[in-house]
Prior knowledge:
Layout: H1 14-62, H2 78-90, H3 97-100, H4 107-115, H5 120-145, E1 149-159, E2 165-175, H6 177-194, H7 196-199, H8 212-223
Antiparallel strand pairs: 1-2
Helix pairs in contact: 2-5, 4-5, 5-6
Amino acid sequence: MATAKRQSKGDLPAAEKRKLARQARRKKKVEAYHAAYDSAAKTTKQAEAAARSAARDEYNATVDVTVAKVKRYQDMTDEQLQWFEEQVVLGTPVDDMPQLREDFPSQYMLWRGIADTHSKLSQAYTRGKELAVARKEELIEKIAATPMIGTTTVRGQRVLKDGTVVDIVETREEDMLGHRTLLIETHKWALAHLKPRKHGRHADPEVGKPNEQLKALFDALMQGPAE
C-alpha cells in the first residue's frame, strides 16, 4: 500500500503558512507578556529589598551598633517599641525586623510577644495594624491613579507577500496594568482581613455610624423617670 508523503512546511499553501505564523505570533506575545510580568514583580521585590537595606544602613549610622541584643520581648525599650509600631504601619514584615536592627529579639521571640496580648509589643502591633488600614486605603487610591511605566518586548513573525516569514522584535513602554491590579488586589485582601466588617466580602455600610436607637435609650436613662 502506498503511503502518503508527509507535506513539509515549505510545501504548505500560503493560507496555511499564514495561519501557522499567526499562531506562532500569538504564542510569543503570551510568552512576552508573562516574561514582562515576572520581570516587573522581580523588580518590585528588588526595590523593596534595597529599601529595607537602606533603612538598616540609615539606622545603624545613627545608633551605636554595638548595643547589646535584646533577647526577650519583655525587655524591649520604648524606642524599640515605637520603631516596631512604625514599621508595622509601613508594611515591613515582622520576620525582616531583626535583620534591620541588630538589637532586636529573634523572629520567634517577636511572634511570641505579639501572641501575648498583655504585652507592650502586642499592643504596639495592634496599633500599627489599625493605622495600616488607613494607609492601605490611601495606597489603593494612589496606585489606581498613578501609572507604572514599564518596558515590554514583543517578539513575533510576519508573513511577506512572497510567503517569507520574518521575525519581528518590538519594544514598547506602557502602563503595567497587570502589576497595578495585583498590588491593588493584595491591599484589598489585607484590608478584608484587617477590617472584615468594613472591607470584607459581606461588608456592612453602617459600620462606624452611631446607633440612634441605642443613643436615645441611654439619653432616656440618664434623664431618669418622668415626673
